[in-house]
Amino acid sequence: MVTIPEGYTVKQIAEKLKALDVIKDVDRFIMEAQTGKFEYEFIQGIKDRPSRLEGYLFPDTYEFKKGMSEHDIINIMLKRFNDIYVKNIKVKSTYKRLYFSISFISRTWCKIYDEGDRT
């Protein structure tokens, strides 16, 4: 079981997964998050940005197995985000508002993290 806390960046998630021997390469995970092809409606509205999936990898407890591909791990986390998105957010939001909300939350958590540990 792997718990991803709220506010973790893509890099922090990759580092945690590597520390737990779930993945072998932090950079490959980050690259997959940036360039991988994922078929979720909420991703279609994302324009190029430094960390494309920042804020979309849903914080939760997951059961990842050693040797899973980076793509599969990211897809599981995006599916969890999608479940929440479809159930609670989609009908109330446009892509633009969703993007700005996710961006704001990610930046806020990064500032909080700089002020203290969230682990």
TrEMBL record:
It comes from the Bacteria. Coiled coil: none annotated. The keyword Lyase applies. One of its GO terms (biological process) is cell wall organization. InterPro entries: MLTG-like. GO terms for molecular function: lyase activity. The keyword Ligase does not apply. Keywords: Cell membrane, Cell wall biogenesis/degradation, Lyase, Membrane, Transmembrane, Transmembrane helix. It holds the Pfam family YceG. This is FIG004453: protein YceG like. It comes from Thermobrachium celere DSM 8682.
